[in-house]
Amino acid sequence: MPCAQVRFGHRNCVRRRSILAWSAVSVLPPICARAQQSTTRVIGFLAGAITPANAPKTPFGAALERGLNETGYVDGENLRIQYRASAEDLVKDKVEVIIVASGGSVQQARDATATIPIVFILVSDPVSGGVVASLNRPGGNVTGVSLLSSELMPKRLQLLRELVPEAKSCAVLINPRNPGIERSTRAGLQGPANGMGLTLDIVSARTQGEFEAAFEKIKALKAGALSWTPKMRQ
Predict the structure, then answer these.
(1) Phi and psi for 52 in degrees, rounded to 5?
(2) What is the CATH code for 149-228?
């Protein structure tokens, strides 16, 4: 199954729910093929930094359930969604597919199983992060949704340059828990930054508690502009 690719803006944001549900359902037998079966299918939701109790209420948890309902799978009827903080617990639960809620948890799921299908949500650059072999042929047991944010990076930098033409440097705030994000950010922005005569500084913040230190570093670097990657909250 190829990785789904999502661009921000227009109607594609709305389609993320359908893409996520389709990715999960595609590894399960069609409902018509099991109409006479009483077995309930089991999907695992690896919550990552989200507490399992709150996961169903998050935008991703709610979107997954709605998307599954649209395909005929209803939690509590012909489907059970297990929300866990540990991939090992999901393996013990014998789930048939694992939904990974944050990019930083993909490796945990991969370490826990090489056979259960894993569907990740919005990893910025799964190829450079080593999550999949390619977008068209992910390989192994992992697939998911890519933001294609690397294509948007130069455009954001160009807009910043137009808004702050006097800036000599630009800081980029990233969440290093997203696999390959620093490498893909530098690869996507270093060339355009050089072409604009901008010094590029990449600053990390994993959680909201690390923001203050990150901004102190940005101030110390005397950055004239600031950009950030999508999905800072994990």
Answers:
(1) -55, -35
(2) 3.40.50.2300
